[in-house]
Amino acid sequence: MFHNLKNFFGPWLDRAASDPTMIPIFFGLCFVGIGVFFLARQKRLAHDCTAQANGVVRGVKRSRSKKSSFFTYTTTFMYAVQGIEYIKEVSSNSAVASEGEGLTVFYDPSNPERHYVLEYKQNIREGLRYILFGVAFIAIGYVSDL
Description:
Radius of gyration: 21 Å
């Protein structure tokens, strides 16, 4: 397997060794790929999760890691499908809802555990953020090549 990877990446690694501008372009393409993955995931969820339920926020917890100055808000919410209650969490960098508020939950009718919350468009934001970083890295690579 390693031999196949060496054959695949070999020409690129040879060029990157002689042309350092390829490194930010490579990382940029990786970031764009990750962003496209997040957007495709959201599109797949929107396609599969066609049923709708009303959810209720049970709590919002604000936390911050010791190494970061940014807060993360973890929202715990509940929704019910055919009498079965599902308790889930979603994280965001901003508090979108507070305890007791309602949320719109879209779920997959064949698998109600699979869901997304309309008010939290996390996959879209993350995808666009990665694509933006990727484009910036690619631009840096091209500009430094001039």
